[in-house]
Task: structure prediction
Amino acid sequence: MRIRLIAVGTRMPAWVGTGYETYARRMPRECRLTLSEVPLPRRSKSNDPERLKAQEADSLLGLAGSDLIVALDQGGNQLDTRHLARHLGKWLQDGRNISLLIGGPDGLHPRCLERADWVWSLSALTLPHPLVRVVVAEQCYRAWCVLRGHPYHRD
Result:
C-alpha cells in the first residue's frame, strides 16, 4: 500500500522538505509515504478564487485516481492518534492506496470534499499549508508506530 500526500504548492521553505522527509523516510515499505505536488495557479485580484480552487481540484483528483481519498479540511473529523492508527490499520487491511489531499491557500474545492472517502481535520486552528505536510507525515508515522507497538509513541 502507498500513502500519497498530494499537496497544492511547489515552492516550500527548506524546513518543510526536511521535516516531511524525516518522517516519510521512517515509514515502512508496506505503507510508504510519498509526496506529489500540484502547482499553485497564479493568483491576482482579478482571479476568481473558486475557479482557482476548481483548477486545483482537477489536478488533485486526477493524481488521486481510484485511491481511497482523505481530504484534509478544518471542518473534518478530529481524532486522536490511536483513532488515526485504527483507520490506518483498516486501510492496510483493505490494501487500497491512499491519497491525502491538501488544498492551496483558499482550501479545497467542494468537489474534493464530496469525492473524499473521509475528511480529516488536524485541528480547529487554521494551519499554514507547509506545516500541514510535516504534521501529516509525522502523524502517519506515529499511527504506524502505534499499530506496531513501536516505542516512538508514548501516551
